């Protein structure tokens, strides 16, 4: 067999072995990186991102290996590389928006900005994330409106589901009520509700007098609750406060209209 051909075959074998080893090393590194992500992210999304990165790495290694092997056999690769560059540029220009969506989608997934089930506000639209893909994000508002946003257009996100929310209730009592009695009733009620409301992640607190309004003395009550459950807890607190005030003859002022009949 021709010695020159043997050298080319050996070189080709070495290139293939090196390519395989490089791919295995890169794949192993990617597995370790994405394995760490699995501890705190959606498994399906992490596997999708890993598969995409892995496929891109494999394709690049195959292309580089083919170009190197062609060079070993004396094939001019400069024209091929130039052609691939032109194709890459044309492809990039034609599909730049799609590529931007894909990269933004990967960034959202890997940075854990939000996930399916989170309540977020994006571009002034608030709702629950019902779909998170590599190209688009779908958000459904509490009224049922569905907004589909291209990932490349998502620049700022308010995630309401990452940290506990704060339920805030302001309740007014009459100026004629005994304030010591009001505070005693509120503190006793909050102590009981601390053991009954499941959404709580902290104790209900009576902060004291918030303001002296025209017709009422307003007390402020807060409670740290599970993300996005503050409105449910506020409704529970308002109902329980009204019932407790009724039991203890504490009045909640409200506007009244007095009509005078004038007889002519």
How are the SSEs placed, and which strands pair?
Layout: H1 3-38, H2 43-72, H3 78-94, H4 96-110, E1 119-122, E2 125-132, E3 136-140, E4 146-150, E5 157-159, E6 165-173, H5 179-193, E7 205-212, E8 217-225, H6 230-247
Antiparallel strand pairs: 1-2, 1-5, 2-3, 3-4, 6-8, 7-8
Helix pairs in contact: 1-2, 5-6
Tell me the structural class: alpha+beta
Reported for the largest beta sheet, the result is:
5 strands, antiparallel
Strand order of the largest sheet: 4-3-2-1-5
Instruction: Please give the oligomerization state of what you see.
Output: single chain
Mean pLDDT: 82
Distance between the termini: 130 Å
Discrete helix count:
6
Fraction in beta strands: 15-25%
Q: Write the H/E string, N to C.
A: HHHHEEEEEEHEEH
* Overall radius of gyration: 33 Å
* Low-confidence parts: none
Note down, in words, how this protein is organized.
With 264 residues, the protein is of the alpha+beta class. The protein is built from 6 helices and 8 strands, in the order ααααββββββαββα. The strands form 2 sheets. It has a 5-stranded antiparallel sheet, with no helix packed on it. A hairpin with a 5-residue loop joins strand 3 (136-140) and strand 4.
